[in-house]
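Quick one, tokens below. Sequence please?
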């Protein structure tokens, strides 16, 4: 990973996935984005450049720490989901200090007005928080983005969503952007952008083609064979750790007879988690006991149109195993459990394995290298699915479990 030191930042190009280091003292004055892009602020998720409603440039900064509004960049497709800045009750959706939601409303209006209006849309630069040993405020550049995504309609790319906090409802924007296939943004174009001339001769060809024709060229990256480590399968924040602990403790029990009953209830929970992950999942049956044929649930995945459906069938197995966190000895999914699921998958079917723990490296590797159609949903994945669905505290998760999966 390339790391660019603070003293080099002012003259540096913007390189996708490069880390731009902050000062060692952790002071706000040593924050790198304001050094990279003079004139922008050093705080907040929205950092615009330019006066008036039409901006020269907008930085979208994500810390990855907001449990209610999880900004995400899909590296496979280049689709970037970013939430607006009305994040507390008591305000109208556009009544925010930084005016971020007004910026979103404006650029998506321009996007859907006329081809000529695209020339008024500013580049959006995506940065993530990425602390290093030398700089706690260091950031990683994730790419340049434009509003909208190929094939997405005007009713989908900017949506006002409701949230509830402490019994109070309020709205915020969920916006969809496309990360463009531009690996490097050169300093010459950055200078032009900050002067209000994003469509200069120094602009990349990909940007120019979008301005002229509206043709999106997403930055897509086909993944190599992915074998997630134990660390990557387990929660990476204290909040996620607490949520996973809440789930595991709800279903775990030392008594063997009680454990079997709770295991069956966990199968229902696992099927629900898969449905929460993707609304096209249809669970047909939660099987039971020795008659399940090695499958805890069976269902279908909708591939076709709703009025002309095509389905892919799946088998699901659920394992409420002890997660290896907070000093506990992990009980991992091994080759035996995975092989059992593989043996139950028929032609044109796929398998889903949901566990509160992790999948052992050998089992994971065999599945991926032999190209078995198996989806692994591990401890970390369960917490992220719950958080995205709005169950973003241990208390709300416990309430959900007690209500939907009582013991």
């Amino acid at each position: 990973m390339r790391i660019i030191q603070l003293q080099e930042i002012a003259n540096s190009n913007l390189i996708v996935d490069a880390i731009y280091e902050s000062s060692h003292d952790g002071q706000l004055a040593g924050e790198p984005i304001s050094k990279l892009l003079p004139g922008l602020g050093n705080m907040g998720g929205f950092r615009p450049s330019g006066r008036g409603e039409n901006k020269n440039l907008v930085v979208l900064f994500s810390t990855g720490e907001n449990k209610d509004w999880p900004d995400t960049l899909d590296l496979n497709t280049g689709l970037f989901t970013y939430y607006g800045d009305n994040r507390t009750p008591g305000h109208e959706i556009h009544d925010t200090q930084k005016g971020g939601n007004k910026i979103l409303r404006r650029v998506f209006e321009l996007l859907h007005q006329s081809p000529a209006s695209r020339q008024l849309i500013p580049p959006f630069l995506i940065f993530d928080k990425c602390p290093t040993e030398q700089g706690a405020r260091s950031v990683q550049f994730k790419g340049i983005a434009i509003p909208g995504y190929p094939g997405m309609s005007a009713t989908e790319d900017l949506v006002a969503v409701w949230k509830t906090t402490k019994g109070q409802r309020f709205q915020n924007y969920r916006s969809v952007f496309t990360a463009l296939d531009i690996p490097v943004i050169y300093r010459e174009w950055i200078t032009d952008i900050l002067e209000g001339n994003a469509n200069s001769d120094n602009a990349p060809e990909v940007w120019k083609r979008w301005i002229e024709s509206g043709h999106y060229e997403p930055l897509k990256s086909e993944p190599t064979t992915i074998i997630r480590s134990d660390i990557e399968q387990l929660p990476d924040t204290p909040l996620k750790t607490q949520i996973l602990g809440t789930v595991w403790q709800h279903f775990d029990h030392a008594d063997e007879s009680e454990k079997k009953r709770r295991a069956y209830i966990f199968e229902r929970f696992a099927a629900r988690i898969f449905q929460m992950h993707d609304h096209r999942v249809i669970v047909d049956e939660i099987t039971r006991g020795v008659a399940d044929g090695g499958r805890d649930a069976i269902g279908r995945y909708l591939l076709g149109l709703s009025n002309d459906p095509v389905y892919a069938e799946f088998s699901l197995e659920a394992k409420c195993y002890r997660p290896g966190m907070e000093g506990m000895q992990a009980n991992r999914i091994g080759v035996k459990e995975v092989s059992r699921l593989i043996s139950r998958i028929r032609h044109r079917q796929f398998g889903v394995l949901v566990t509160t723990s992790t999948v052992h490296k050998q089992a994971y590797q065999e599945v991926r290298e032999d190209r078995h159609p198996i989806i692994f949903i591990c401890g970390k994945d369960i917490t992220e699915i719950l958080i995205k669905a709005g169950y973003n505290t241990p208390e709300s998760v416990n309430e959900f479990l007690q209500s939907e999966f009582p013991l």
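The chain has two domains: 3-213, 230-404. The longest helix spans residues 256-277.
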